[in-house]
């Protein structure tokens, strides 16, 4: 196995949980935008945002993961996720860093609450603590049915 291959990770916090998406998924980090509410939307849907004239669905990752929803603070951010089905905006409590992790930094998935296990693909020990790499497709398909999540197609 090549231990020199590195993966770029966007590390962020959702409550007390340190998480990450690979940088090919988390394409941008923005301040909390103005959000237009969608009447009757599920609790994890925050609404719609306008990102450079492109309308994206915004969702709260904590609610999707079964965690308590935090109040928006000056550290809160939105990650613009690029998925095969399109782009989405994901609200997180704080972005820690963008790190490059070598293959040898990854460890077997640690003991996590059962509700989180389906969404974690692997974990790594970082300078910020133990980070759970999230599987965005699992989050999208398991908790955010497409009937509730319009996306914009990639350009």
Brief descriptors of the model:
about 160 residues, five-stranded mixed beta sheet, single chain, OB fold (Dihydrolipoamide Acetyltransferase, E2P), 2 helices, about 10% helix, mainly beta, 11 strands, six-stranded mixed beta sheet, globular
Structure explained in plain terms:
The protein has 155 residues and is mainly beta. Helices cover 8% and strands 47% of the residues. The protein contains two helices and eleven strands, in the order βββββαββββββα. The chain has helices at residues 61-64, 136-143, and strands spanning 6-14, 17-22, 26-31, 45-51, 54-60, 77-83, 86-92, 94-102, 106-107, 120-126, 129-134. The protein has a six-stranded mixed beta sheet. It starts with 5 loop residues before the first strand and ends in a 12-residue tail after the last helix. Residues 147-151 have low confidence and may be disordered.
Task: Quickly describe the structure.
With 155 residues, the protein is mainly β. 8% of the residues lie in helices and 47% in strands.
The N- to C-terminal Cα distance equals 35 Å
CATH superfamily: CheA-289, Domain 4
**Average predicted local confidence, pLDDT:** 87
Instruction: Flag low-confidence runs.
Output: 147-151
Query: By helix and strand content, what is the structural category?
Result: mainly beta
What strand order characterises the main sheet?
8-1-2-11-10-9
CATH architecture: Beta Barrel
What is the class in the CATH system? Mainly Beta
Count of folded domains: 1
Number of helices: 2
H and E order: EEEEEHEEEEEEH
Strand content: over 45%
Helical percentage: under 10%
Give Rg in angstroms. 15 Å
Shape: globular
CATH level-3 fold name: OB fold (Dihydrolipoamide Acetyltransferase, E2P)
* Main sheet record: 6 strands, mixed
Strand tally is 11
